[in-house]
Specification:
- Chains A, B, C: It comes from Rhizobium altiplani.
- Chains A, B, C: Keywords: Aminopeptidase, Hydrolase, Protease.
- The structure is a homotrimer.
- The C terminus of chain A is likely disordered.
- In chain A, helix 7 crosses helix 9.
- Chain A has an eight-stranded mixed sheet, with helices on both faces. A four-stranded antiparallel sheet of chain A has the order 5-4-9-6. The first copy, chain A, has a three-stranded antiparallel sheet with strand order 18-17-19.
- Chain A is α/β, with parallel strands linked by helices.
- At the B-C interface, helix 6 of B face helix 10 of C.
């Protein structure tokens, strides 16, 4: 959580994003596997899983795998004017193979561009309905002349698998904190590469810590179908164990911090994320459940009801470059990623430190005889121990430390050491510890 | 609920108000019976009841019946300057008979006028203390010259009965929605004739509907003593059956919409009325319990505690013509009545449709394979199905549909068809139906 | 509660403050005993208690007793420039004895002054660490010339006792209302003498009342160590009996009224104090728990959790003269004290009258036949009985009278007589009375 470490971590995240950027990811296919291979190099703890096409997952079926070898359009003069090799956004995601010539007016029905952002190549997919299409800048589209165009998509849509990665880290308790991020978008930076690279840095930080009070579950999955597959295999254990989870998406730029709640809106995940955003970021955008659009849609669906909130910088859909070629490596920065890393660390600490403590003397303790209080009383001397006394006044055993911290208006990671000092002085009992034996 | 039907219904209500206007109603007497006879012609389902004078009803006793044959004042020259036949408001309600001559200064003690509204004849009653009196415009009062006046009230105050009407309509459930309106004021239009004529149109609409999920209880009663009598006979069954009720009063003008809550303030009646006012009227005045003044005083009294809220246009006491001769047929309009009809219909639909539904798949359903979702994903395509997805995300079986509608910010009668479509697609269970068999 | 009585009471309180002002009080010592002796003269009901030095009280130990005979500083010319006899604030509270000469620069380490308030002598203590020191105006300090100063403190710090006073008044119920005020500050007026003199007037008022529904416990104690000692002896019985308590401090000036909540924030004490401040004072400062600084720190500590709120005029720490020689008899006034007396009386009445009542007829009662309602109904006549009807509408047996009063927007002492009239008329049951037999 210190700023030097955060700066280094942000730079490492940025470097990893640069390496992952060119890969053609989709919800299935070799791009996902390449991505997972690089992530495994970074995190040997990562295990990868493959779910065969056709597998039923809740209301969904894992689709065929999509593999692209080549895709381009040649103009009437034979110039290759659009080429998947140059920018993988040119090809509509899950395009079926095609190899034909057709006149411009027929080709138009397969072209996608953004008149309002004429320089941007849009990102378009058609996962569950067979189509083919190309995306291009509106400027380029306007420059197309009538004539016969040759279109070639050398792609396969065939049974294969959906791949995802999972890091499980054992802590003192089997109860878990959960992180989810996605790896299913081609060359775009804030949405999505910022998510997996920040999550990777968080995993490294977790591994480096002396001791983890909770176990961790971190998943790198294709959005929607990936979270649905993951839940269909792990829902039981997750409902038992997950105390708080965070969806990590769009965490790379430095224009804003953003929060999107769980459906419940007041889970530990919500409270921890809000606390971290308030004390690390200060100002942030607070979105509502109605603004959702990522895997919280699955994690918080009725009867799944996991405590998962989203931590973001500029939210998907809320910045102009979203889902276009303008969401590139210039949009994100080491500093932007570092800020997100610090907020996620803060949310994790908030969730971990949100324990119950209880003062064990009646009335205020005499801090003076324990060297915890100035022994001379002057007009202003009370101020210096006010925070400690305020914290003590709230340690009634019923109020969790996150609520205590919010009441006294300080970050829980600044309050926690004060409480530990009181525990050492024998004035305060850690009820979590007291309770643990009976849990075994 | 379509606007043509509402316009026709508002015109029919206005025509009925014109027919009922001249009748001299009070809390008892032939005027009430005449009114009920006309209402029976409109609604053959209406049954009428008579409660004998002297009957105890809770803390009250049904008073003697009041019948007026003739009432006038002649000035010293023998001109009939005030005559009940010209305007029944001239005679104080429940005036005892008198036949005498007296000088102007003695007569003054029996005259009522409004200095602030010098053109208006006030409406004054003395139900529970024997008095006599005449009401006149303050202009007329100032023109009276000294001298002997002849006063004649040919009226009877004698044992008879209190009359009221009741419509019971059987629906699928024995649980009831309840409407109450009053028929005890002489020639005044917004307060009160708008109430019974709107209630009559609602009854016709209910009868015309294919199927009613709830049964209905609609009463046309004298205010206060009438609701007390009605409750004293029906409280047990009403407490068992009434899920929501609406007091329909002052629903004829077109200057405002108004809401007055039940004492509890958060019953289904309150929520349904507020929802209807918000989505039909848009803007409306929101009164508090402390502004009450009609039969909610009885319906919501301690230990009666029925869920009854008031739906109004310009509320009694809140418009200058209230309880004067200026509250006449010019003050109300077919459009004003039609607006009230639509709000009451909306409140009834909101109460009926406020059921519990539950999505029966885990995670978001795949709408695409059921033809409920566009199959191509572009930058903006999500918007078109957002409302349906928002509704689905709330169908957890615990949140009733009215609350779901309020959360997504739409009228329940626009959400209900979406939910029925999901029920037909087998994605959503109607918990009300599931529960019903066990109720039988 | 009438204003003549309040004025007299305020004057009596002021006179008593003048008599008590010169005494050198501290948390122990003869000054406390002198003060208690004068209070016993005023209230023969007062009993005094002594707790020996060295007694353990929760986390604390009663300190040695401090007695001062003489304390002064002489300048290099032998002039007695600072003398405890002239103002007891000159001597740091609990200074140890000293008798020496030392140069000015060494003396400076033992001097306390306020650069921002150069005319004021600050009030400084060092109860739990052995030190000596003198307090003086910053003007005087700046005028000190280099040279040898003679310092003499003839004081004893030796085993003795901590003294406090207690008034127990038996009422109809063993349940208690509790008042606490402190007697441990030397010559300062708003903080603290206003507290014990207002409490004395309240005790006289309580004794003068015909009948007390609750018993009373009023304590005059040294702050912090005194309340800790008192609680360590009485906590069990107090937790059983105390329904509401008020800490009476800083109640002498007339610049503001102030409220500081219990830790819980919504006990009967909080509600009664807020009600009294609203209806007696109108405007007042509303402090939070984080602004606390008096014995509520002990009364509301975790597991002690007594319902104790603070009623103040200008709060300790919130006025410039606080804890200096400027907090003198000019700062407080008979009118200031009288205002506080009225608020405390109001809070006591609010707590006493906060009982449960229930209307025993269904529907609105017919007030007319009981002479409680005007028998003629005109356009405005309803207003005159509206308050009574509003109260009746809330007497459901579940809503306590303080909440009823807050809902109808009137002082409980104005509502209570209305309710008693309804009880006499047989319309309302006093549930507190009904319940009492079963308590015996």
């Amino acid at each position: 959580m210190n700023s030097d470490a955060a700066r280094e971590s942000g730079q490492a995240a940025y470097n990893l994003a640069c390496e992952l950027f060119p890969i053609n990811r989709s919800i299935t296919g070799p791009g996902v596997r390449q991505t997972l291979a690089i992530l495994t190099r970074e995190m040997p703890e990562l295990t990868t899983h493959a779910v065969p096409s056709g597998t039923q997952a809740f209301d969904w079926v894992v689709p065929d795998e999509w593999e692209v070898r080549e895709a381009y359009i040649e103009d009437p003069e034979g110039n290759r004017i659009i080429d998947f090799k140059i920018n993988n956004l040119h090809l509509m995601g899950y395009s079926e193979p095609v190899n034909c010539e057709l006149p411009l007016d027929e080709l138009q029905a397969h072209l996608y561009s953004l008149p309002d952002q004429p320089d941007a190549i849009p990102y378009v997919t058609s996962y569950y309905s067979r189509r083919w299409g190309f995306c291009l800048s509106h400027h380029q589209r306007l420059s197309l002349k009538p004539g016969q165009y040759r279109v070639r998509i050398d792609a396969t849509l065939a049974p294969g698998s959906l791949n995802y990665g999972e890091v499980l880290i054992a802590g003192d308790s089997v109860e878990e904190l959960f992180l989810s991020t996605y790896i299913c978008h081609p060359s775009m930076a804030n949405n999505e590469l910022s998510g997996p690279v920040v999550a990777t840095e968080i995993v490294k930080w977790l591994i480096s810590r002396d001791r983890l009070p909770y176990s961790f579950r971190v998943v790198f999955i294709p959005e929607t179908i990936g979270s649905i597959c993951y839940l269909s295999h792990n829902l039981g254990v997750m409902k038992e164990r997950v105390r708080a989870g965070f969806n990590i998406t769009c965490v790379g730029d430095d224009r804003a911090y953003s929060f999107l709640p769980s459906r419940d809106g007041n889970t530990l995940a919500d409270r921890a994320a809000l606390h971290a955003l308030q004390h690390v970021a200060g100002e942030f955008e607070r979105y509502s459940w109605w603004d959702r659009g990522s895997d919280e849609r699955q994690y918080c669906a009725p009867d799944i009801d996991l405590p998962v909130a989203s931590i973001m910088r500029s939210k998907y859909g809320a910045y102009p470059e979203y889902h276009t070629s303008l969401d590139n490596l210039d949009l994100i920065s080491p500093a932007g990623l570092a800020g997100a890393i610090r907020v996620v660390q803060g949310a994790i600490l908030a969730a971990e430190q949100d324990r119950h403590f209880k003062i064990n003397v009646l009335g205020e303790p005499q801090l003076g005889k324990r060297g915890l209080y100035p022994t001379i009383s002057t007009k202003n001397s009370g101020e210096t121990v006010r925070l400690m006394m305020n914290v003590i006044s709230q340690l009634d055993g019923r109020t969790s430390l996150l609520e205590v911290s919010n009441r006294v208006g300080a970050a829980i990671w600044d309050i926690y050491p004060i409480v530990l000092k009181l525990v050492e002085a024998g004035l305060v009992d850690d009820l979590s510890l007291t309770v643990q034996p009976s849990n075994i």
